[in-house]
Amino acid sequence: MSDPVIVGVDGSARSLEAVVVAAREAQLRAVPLRIVHALGRHTMHPPSTATAHDSTDHGSAAPTLALMADAEERAQTTAPGIELFRLVLPGEPRQVLENESRHAALTVLANRGHSRIADLLLGSTAVHLASHSHCPLIVVRGRSDPAGPVLLAVNGTPTEQTAVEFAFAEAALREAPLRAMHVWNTWSERAYEGPGDPLNAMVTDIEHLRAAEGELLERTVAPLRRTFPHVAVEHRLVRSRTRPALIDASQEAQLVVVDPGPHGARTGLLLGSVSQSLLHHAHCPVAVIRGRR
Fold first, then answer.
1. Can you tell me the distance from the alpha carbon of 224 to that of 218, in angstroms, rounded to the nearest whole number?
2. What is the residue-wise DSSP string for the chain?
3. CA-CA-CA-CA torsion sign (89, 46, 27, 293)
4. Per-residue b/e over 150-170, b at no fewer than 16 CB within 10 Å?
5. Which residues contact 200 (CB under 8 A, 6 or more apart)?
């Protein structure tokens, strides 16, 4: 059996929206959907396998059974005929979902839960999985039914090829255009990677810098354009501050795809800055795709 799409649920309206997104993703990939609920108890080694409809195996109370039944109904309504598995496991959500992601094609998660406490819990889970998931992660937020292109945030870091590949594949699955966007400014100068203090450097040839950043965008996207010739690709080179520019662009997108970048990268999209800003402020779902380390 192909690796499933997994989705974390906690009973909140937002997590049920994530079930809808996950069901669509599973249908597009022709793989099963696994609906996962964590009971919140601490455990170092949560189990990683289960059979269909096995939530009663862990002594689930009636509210948990009702939650899982509601989630399953949402999934079946969204993607009739999809193969479904329900799984209730002990442990904190981020531990459980990280473990489950080892055997998944994609993890889908809401950006917040059903209360202020749950907001913190699911928020921390999303941030944790963005750094530790073993498969691509989509965090559902923003508009309830977003439309538009798949927005790829091109950052020029060595690890982003995986994110580029995911963005093209996702655009192909959704039959949507791809907007490859690279945000640059005077701190983007590649020459700063040499000796000297980049904080004291000044760029005087703006047009040369603009051309260099445009070439970076073209180099990043070109190989995948040949692999996915039917995906319509738009290049967007923007001189601005990275975080507000991408957040603003997400208003017109159905999904933002971003690579969090390696720790210590000078201009990369670090999880603590740009990627985390998108997780909290984007107007559409955000896919965080960790590159091959």
1. 11
2. -PPPEEEE--SSHHHHHHHHHHHHHHHHHT--EEEEEE-----SS------TT-GGGGT--HHHHHHHHHHHHHHHHHSTT--EEEEEESS-HHHHHHHHGGG-SEEEEES--SSHHHHHHHHHHHHHHHHH-SS-EEEE-SSSS--SPEEEEE---TTTHHHHHHHHHHHHHHT--EEEEEEE-GGG-GGGGSSS-GGG-----HHHHHHHHHHHHHHHHHHHHHH-TTS-EEEEEEES-HHHHHHHHGGG-SEEEE----TT-SSS--IIIIIHHHHHH-SS-EEE-PPP-
3. positive
4. bbbbbbbbebbbebbbbbbbb
5. none
- Residue type at 110? A
Distance in angstroms (rounded) separating the CA atoms of residues 286 and 109: 10
Summarised one tens digit per residue, pLDDT across range 88-130 is 999 988 899 999 999 999 999 998 754 444 444 446 788 889 8
- Angle of helix 116-132 versus helix 93-100 axis, rounded to 10: 30
- Out of 11-25, 189-203, 265-279, least confident range: 189-203
Q: In this predicted structure, what is the pLDDT of residue 266?
A: 39
Cα separation, 154 vs 178, in Å, equals 12
Place of tokens 């917040």: 112
The two tokens of residue 168 are 């093209």
pTM of the model: 0.84
Distance CA 264, CA 154 (A): 17
User: What would the mean pLDDT of 41-54 be, rounded to a whole number?
Assistant: 39
More confident residue, 123 or 76: 76
Over residues 247-256, the pLDDT tens digits come to 999 999 999 9
Rg of the Cα trace of the chain? Answer: 20
